[in-house]
Amino acid sequence: MNLSNEEILDFLNQKVAEYNQASFIETDPISIPHQFKKKEDIEIAGFLTATIAWGQRKTVLKNAQKMMDLMDRDPHQFILHHSEKDFKKFEGFVHRTFNAIDFQYFCQALQNIYKDHGGLEKLFSHHSTKEDTQQAIHQFKKVFFELPHLKRTTKHVSDPVKKSAAKRINMFLRWMVRDDSSGVDFGIWKKIPSSALSCPLDVHSGRVARKLNLLNGKQNDAVAVSKLDENLRHFDPQDPVKYDFALFGLGVFEGF
After folding, report:
1. Can you spell out the DSSP letters for the chain?
2. Would you kindly state where each structural domain of the chain is located, as residue ranges?
3. How many Å is the maximal CA-CA distance in the chain?
4. Separation CA 87–CA 142 (nearest Å)
5. CB environment 58-89: b (16+ within 10 A), e (fewer)
């Protein structure tokens, strides 16, 4: 599309206004953490839901709901106080390549983070800057896997330093950090500015970004995320990832 930057900005702002609405929540994975009120419950439900947020959305919602049920719908208490016998009910759980063994390790790693590292917000914010959260994701992964674990489980936490777009963790960070007047994103983390967030880049948002000349390479990787961040921050330096609503909505709902 041959649009001027001003025309692209107007178009994206229109789509943000259209999709960044409370009605967006019901069919989106963010609906799972919206079932909770306590900060730690929202964080844990959000992180686990984001972890399995690939594939058909209905299946993601069904399996994320099942994860919450297996944690007795009390995620924070389950993470802090679970025992080995509690994991027996995880048997048979699977979402694509994420299985019961992965789920069990994630619970153990989260317990370590809440008991020994001050929780998810503290861990992510410790390595974030005013301009960037990608190094924080890299450092988070190091801590997350500091307990004994199977190598297969590490693939479920992406690392931008290894060129991953880290779509699901960037989405989780958007949920936690971005202060959203429409009530979609939570904005419960106050130590990381929205200006530092990166757009959750996937095949849908990447396709739309390329049509709008916000990206030019073919790969949806860390390099593409950086380039997209640069362009979106020109449009809104304080809240660049609000345009995720536009790119995602255009790609998934409108087939743009």
Report:
1. ----HHHHHHHHHHHHHHHSSGGGSTTSGGGTGGG--SHHHHHHHHHHHHHT--S-HHHHHHHHHHHHHHTTT-HHHHHHH--GGGGGGGTT-EETTEEHHHHHHHHHHHHHHHHHS--HHHHHHHT--SS--HHHHHHHHHHHT-S---GGGGGGS--GGGT---HHHHHHHHHHH---TTSSS-----SS-GGG------HHHHHHHHHTTS--SS--SHHHHHHHHHHHHHH-SS-GGGHHHHHHIIIIIS--
2. 5-253
3. 60
4. 24
5. eebbebbeebbebbeeebbebbeebeeeebee
Instruction: Give 8-47 pLDDT, tens digit per residue.
Output: 999 999 999 999 999 999 999 999 999 999 999 999 999 9
pLDDT tens string 88-107 = 999 999 999 999 999 999 99
Tell whether the torsion through CA atoms of 88, 63, 220 and 227 is positive or negative: negative
